[in-house]
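It is worth pausing here to work through a concrete case rather than discussing structure prediction in the abstract. The textbook approach is simple: state the sequence, then state the predicted structure, then interpret. We follow exactly that order.
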Amino acid sequence: MTEELQRLGLSGYEAKAYVALVSAGEAVNGYEVAKWRSGVPRSTVYETLGKLVGRGAAFEVRAAEGTGYVPLPPATLLERMRRDFDRTLGILQNEIPRLTAPPQVRLVHSLTERRMLLERAEDVAAAARSELYVLGWPEDVETLKPTVRRAEEHGVDVATVVFGVDDDPVGWHTEHRYSAPSAVEDNLGRRMLVVGADRDQAVIGGLTADRTWGLYTDDPAAVLLAHLYVRHDIAMHRVAERFAEHGFDEFWADDPALRRLREPVGEPVRAADGAPRSVGPETDPDGDDGRSRAG
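Step two, the predicted structure:
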């Protein structure tokens, strides 16, 4: 609780002291707060309690035995914080756009942890105003669903492609069946995650049990490729459904060109300059010129 209160603007000592007051259930003095209930040092406890009083998060109670402190009821404090936060957010939403200059450069930054990748994907989904494309495995898409649902409720055209069964789909939903999710993961060597909003920004990533790589970008070329990647998968499944009774399964399984395209793409490695590159069945990692050779 103290960590979350700090996110809302209290200092560490203030948060600890407030929780101590709430848990006491009665008026307590600074000595009691410091020694038994909070861990706030005695040298700073009265200063800390004074700051809580100044915020209106606590009140002094004067009695014959001295000054005690009681907290503002938690529900009241949280509602007050909510109003303050909404007021501040409203001001910033109105004022910050006035300072924004047209972008001179496009942003690309790497994401090397699953948490970072999913948080940035949530940012992209939350920013969508007209269209949102999401492609990924169920365990990753599930994390994004609350944000994606809010976007849909606000009128955003949402399309999702999920590699596996999703019992609670969002938006225009496509279950990826060609090829099976396990086969795709074996082919790519990772789970893919693509989230693109308004053809304006995108997150693209790959996840394994112990590794994550990815990027956020607002570069138009990369964003367009991300959108086309998801749209291509949706279109492919529409074609498969339309021609399911006309030998599509056999065509998908037996066509030499499609079999070649389903060959493993290899693991990403780093070149001498540190840039990621792919080593697969048609790439010579030891070649002098780095060009592809025939398989």
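Step three, interpretation. Confidence is low (pLDDT under 50) at residues 269-273, 275-295. The longest helix spans residues 74-99.
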